[in-house]
Amino acid sequence: MNQPRIAYLINQYPTVSQTFIRREIRALEQQGFNILRIALQGWDAKLVDEDSQRERMHTRYVLQEGAFVLLWAVLQILLTAPVRFFSALILAIRMMRGSERTFTYHLVYFAEACRILPWLRSFDAKHIHAHFGNNSAEVAMLVNALGGPTYSFTLHGQNELLFGGTSEKVHRAAFVVAISSYGRSQLYRKVEHVHWPKIKVIHCGLDTAFHDFAPVQPTALPRLVCVGRLCEAKGQLLLVEAAHRLAQKNIIFELVLAGDGEMRAELDSLIDQYKLNGQIRITGWLNVSQVREEMLAARGLVLPSFSEGLPIVIMEAMALRRPVLSTYVAGIPELVLPGVTGWLFPAGSIDDLMAAIEDMLSKTTDELRTMGDAAYMRVLQRHSIETESAKLAKLFRKPANEDYVISQVSYASHNTNRAPP
Q: pLDDT by residue (tens digit) across 177-203?
């Protein structure tokens, strides 16, 4: 039996925050798929673990060889398929409407699509799946418009909808994946009702290796951990403000900020200003095993995000039997149940964040264990990598609509003389 051949397209890959994509790809490979990994950039990024370094060796990078190679790819498509070339170029220009990106960006996406098309034909890819609904999805759509295979994409957060052209991307896609019901509802707002059936909810999956070991009992220490990029959207500044007020009330606590990012200097300055260096520690970037150890050493995870999709780190904490404190944002309430698997509080409220932390610190280890067990059961029911990847595999194997089939036939007719990689 021939292995189904598909391509995955990601803007930057691999990265610390995208281990869920790696899990998804490998789960599909275990189900018989042959997957070509394509990223626009990331060949020179700093990687903190050997697994990511190995994954990079299996990835092709569109921008690695520079502008001349892109221009040559554009010229080749112009000479060999002028009708499709200009049709796709017009589509790229049309994508400027409502986009926050300038004309130049969309021309670059068009050139990237020209570069990718020969790789797909050489690989004999039957479908291309993009992660994130921004430029990756647009490039996949332009590849299809140039005569390439059908495409789909996964939308992770509502910020991707600000990129523009969502309706066009969904209209031309074979199917679209949302990682939560909330995400699906936001896509419903952007597209005509006739396209709603092609929008599917498939959760991000957890690797069994992450949680397949004996439970570790919650610590009696008053320690919480916040895992994520140090950035505005994650709300770490609010967390430091809450920590300052807790310290003023003489409440004993420890807080670990596991991660790094553009706001580190500002956070360091605020921690110094409030003299919280003895209570708050910033770790810098950590690999998967280090993140797991920080979670296991804490009572629970706190994530005071202002904007999210459905954070993988929440799933991981729950898989480790740690309750979660987070905000009523996007898909988070679909997973975190107040009083059962954790705490939810209004985004941006220091008072409500403080109350949630105080309540967590007041719990006995037995109470935390009960909540952690409930969290474990809930996340395994909803985020099994085997179950979720099987849903995706079914979509890849079975065309979702007639347009999918027609487009696939068109691509096959252009693929009889495949170009070299």
A: 999 999 999 999 999 999 999 999 999
Q: Which residue, among 202, 183, 209, has the nearest Cα to 26 in the 3D structure?
A: 209
Average pLDDT score over the chain: 91
Contacts 24+ apart (CB under 8 A), 182-191: 182/310, 182/330, 182/331, 182/334, 183/155, 183/156, 183/157, 183/158, 183/309, 183/310, 183/330, 183/331, 186/155, 186/158, 186/161, 187/155, 187/161, 190/161, 190/166, 191/166, 191/167
The DSSP 8-state label assigned to residue 286 in this structure reads -
In this structure, what is the dihedral angle of CA atoms 236, 244, 291, 218, given to the nearest 10 degrees? -130
Six-digit token string for 200: 């599917």
DSSP 8-state secondary structure symbol assigned to residue 313: H
| Distance of alpha carbon 197 from alpha carbon 243, whole angstroms | 46
Secondary structure class of 349 (helix, strand, coil): coil
152 near 175, Cβ under 8 Å?
yes
Q: Nearest 5 degrees, angle CA 416-CA 418-CA 421? A: 165
Sign of the CA dihedral with 31 first, then 34, 40, and 46 last: positive
Cα angle: 365, vertex 368, 373; to 5 degrees? 125
Of 142, 140, 137, the C-alpha closest to 92 is: 142
Q: How far apart are CA 292 and CA 278, in angstroms?
A: 23
The pTM (predicted TM-score) of the whole model is 0.86
CA distance 196 to 93: 26
254: number of Cβ within 10 Å: 18
Nearest to 342 by CA among 379, 307, 380: 379
pLDDT digits (tens, 9 = 90+) for 362-399: 999 999 999 999 999 999 999 999 999 999 999 999 75
63 CB-near residues (< 8 Å, 6+ apart): 40, 41, 70, 112
Residue 15 has pLDDT above 90, yes or no: no
In which element (H, E) is residue 12 found?
strand 5-12
Query: pLDDT tens digits for 111-137?
Result: 999 999 999 999 999 999 999 999 999
Domains annotated on the chain, with CATH: 5-205+384-413 (3.40.50.2000), 208-382 (3.40.50.2000)
